[in-house]
Specification:
Blueprint: E1 2-3, H1 4-13, E2 16-18, H2 20-30, E3 38-42, H3 48-57, E4 60-64, E5 66-69, E6 72-75, H4 77-91, E7 97-101, H5 108-115, E8 120-125, H6 131-136, E9 139-142, E10 145-147
Parallel strand pairs: 1-3, 3-4, 7-8, 8-9
Antiparallel strand pairs: 2-10, 5-6
Helix pairs in contact: 2-3
Length: about 150
């Protein structure tokens, strides 16, 4: 499950762009079979070109609209990722490893949810990863990036 905006922002800070095909390959190498690969992206960042990029890398895309929270506009990526992850768990309870791609500490309760159910949680992050998230997952790998010129 990929938090698209979070991943691309971290890659930009490192002077690159996320290599989504390599991300899938690393998941296959480090975790094994990928049953479900979902990219969560806010509506304002989704273009036809990006949808094609996600699809060619092997990701299904969930486009998340914005909402107003305490007079501040916020996209629904985090809440949609968490809700769908729990739903997918019910449908695929045989899965042994969960992969989260984000630096966001808001996913710590989701990590706890899976760990209490005996799942291994793998994090792909980059740069400034939330300390609480780092401490809650089983293993951390860097998000693969391609350098931009």
């Amino acid at each position: 499950m990929v938090d698209y905006e979070n991943a691309i922002e971290a890659a930009v800070v490192k002077g690159g762009i996320v290599d989504f095909k390599e991300l899938i390959n690393e998941c296959l190498d480090r975790v094994g079979v990928v049953k479900v690969a979902i990219m969560f992206a806010p509506l304002h960042l989704v273009t036809e070109e990006r949808l094609e990029e996600f699809d060619s890398a092997g990701f299904d895309c969930v486009v998340c609209p914005r909402r107003i929270v305490y007079e501040k506009e916020k996209d629904r990526v985090d809440s949609r990722m968490i809700a769908l992850a729990k739903k997918l768990f019910d449908e695929h309870s045989d899965v042994t490893d969960i992969v989260i791609v984000s630096n966001d500490g808001d996913f710590t309760p989701l990590v706890t949810f899976f760990k209490h159910r005996g799942k291994r949680v793998v994090l792909f992050g980059l740069g400034d990863i939330s300390m609480v998230l780092k401490k809650s997952v089983d293993v951390i790998y860097e998000i693969p990036i391609k350098k931009t010129i």
